[in-house]
Amino acid sequence: MNSENFSLSEKIVSTAYVRQGSQARRGHEHLIRQLLEQGKCPEEGWSESTVELFLSELAVMDSNNFLGNCGVGEREGRVASSLVARRHYRLIHGIGRSGDIAAIQPKAAGSSLLNKLTNSVVLDILKLSGVRSVASCFVVPMATGMSLTLCFLTLRHRRPKARYIVWPRIDQKSCFKAMITAGFEPAVVENVLEGDELRTDLEAVERKIEELGAENILCVHSTTSCFAPRVPDRLEELAAVCAKHNIPHIVNNAYGVQSSKCMHLIQQGARVGRIDAFVQSLDKNFMVPVGGAIIAGFDESFIQEISQMYPGRASASPSLDVLITLLTLGASGYKKLLSERKEIYLFLAQELKSLASAHGERLLHTPHNPISLAMSLDGLQAESDKAVTQLGSMLFTRQVSGARVIPLGKEQTISGHKFRGFMSHCEAYPCPYLNAASAVGIAREDVTLCIKRLDKCLKTLKKEGNAAKSSSPAAPSGEGDTTGE
Asked: Rounded CA gap, 145 and 230, in Å?
């Protein structure tokens, strides 16, 4: 409805009523105009009606929704199912063009505008979350692992002689396979145990660079968000090492946007040294469906180079999902979620500590990990070798998702590389343990219910262990006594 249509409406319905409706419409349009002018996440979240109006306005700018459109090409935004069309708000053309995922499509002004606005709003959120000097970013319709691969493939053109990626070990398959898929050999650097924490061995990184030769190294591939007792890498020191040796630095910041500590590490690393790009998941940080990531950095030309490496057009679904979410939450709503996550982290730590004490275990001391916690399972290991892995199965069947139980001595081969002590981020961690995390969107009720079910599982396993011991036959007198031999 434009001003002319509103004037015509006054001939049909009372002028006072139409003007009231016109004013309401202008309220929606004012919010949309602010978004277009500023390109930032609105401070206060929009209503669903405003979001839907905006998306509808974008959709009618795409050629597949033109009333008189006559398409005779192979890609004309045709959709067989009306349900699928509604699911995508009739934004069918996707984003980018064959040569650049960030390019504007002549057939799809609305989808192109969606893409540009999403990247602009996400950039604003990254700055708000702590990386103030980030220069550029774009949403890519791939999860974190493949997005890291895209970064490595882009660097290949800058460093054609490079064969290796220096990688402080983190036991997570996708980031390891990202390097293999890109055609590089991971140079694994084991972590060093400091108290209960597993931290970056900076001396070992330096030795690895000297051993391989800086010109043969594509980049250092570091990590922020991770499962305790591993903690975020020493990003400032690694960034300084990379600057010293003129080696690119890619950071896996998978679910680090929700942590001010992780974002601060990236900001400081870029300030004192070198960070070329950092990659983060959409679903883990913004509570949207799996399938998207953000590639960001401090050199706009390099981020543009990565976007141009993406072959072909791309799905607009991840961009649409995160834009709807951020417009609905607003900056204040997202900041509130981050604040609540921090509070629940402290609550989870206290509850796990109390539970651990009640069962003769302890909460591992990992102050440098701002998201994940770990509780020892020494007592459970003493009951039987199977008890630790059985706990994981019991929690899963009792609908406790996300908790990870890490036994001792597990081995795993990934793409021909054998890892000892897999899942514990080192070859021989001193004890088995259980992980739990306070991630964005978690509620106190989640923690309370988890602790209650975990307590029951531990009591059940202890009871079963005691019953097994009491039912086993006693050894004959003298058997097993070898003191006289």
From this structure: 19
- DSSP strands (E only) in 407-455: 411-414, 417-420, 433-437
Q: Which of 294, 192, 298, 287 is nearest to 253 (CA)?
A: 294
> Model confidence over 1-17: pLDDT tens digits?
788 888 878 789 888 88
What is the per-residue pLDDT across 67-97, written as a single tens digit (0 to 9) for each? Answer: 988 888 888 889 999 999 999 999 999 999 8
Amino acid code (one letter) for 412: Q
354 is in an annotated binding site: no
**Is position 260 annotated in a ligand binding site?**
no
d(CA 110, CA 104): 10
313 is in an annotated binding site: yes
Q: How far apart are the first and last CA of the chain?
A: 99
Burial tier of 228 (Cβ tally within 10 Å: 0-12, 13-18, 19+): buried
420 marked among binding-site residues = no
Here the tokens at position 403 are 């908790």
Residue 429 φ/ψ, nearest 5 degrees: -70, 150
Q: Burial-class residue 413 by CB neighbours within 10 Å (0-12, 13-18, 19+).
A: exposed
What is the strand order of the sheet 372-376 is part of? 372-376, 433-437, 404-406
**Is 98 among the annotated ligand-binding positions?**
yes
Residue with tokens 């000892």: 420
Q: Is 105 annotated as a binding residue?
A: yes
Q: How many other C-beta atoms lie within 10 A of the C-beta of residue 394?
A: 19
Phi, psi (5° rounding) for residue 193? -85, 120
Asked whether the whole model's pTM tops 0.90, one would answer yes
Burial (CB count <10 Å: 0-12, 13-18, 19+), residue 61: middle
Peptide bond before 318: cis, by omega within 30 degrees of 0? no
Is 398 known as a binding-site position? yes
Kindly indicate the confidence band of residue 169, based on its pLDDT and cuts at 50, 70 and 90. Answer: very high
Report the chain's C-alpha Rg in angstroms: 27
d(CA 170, CA 149): 17
> Does residue 368 have a pLDDT over 90?
yes
Tell me the average pLDDT across 110-136.
97
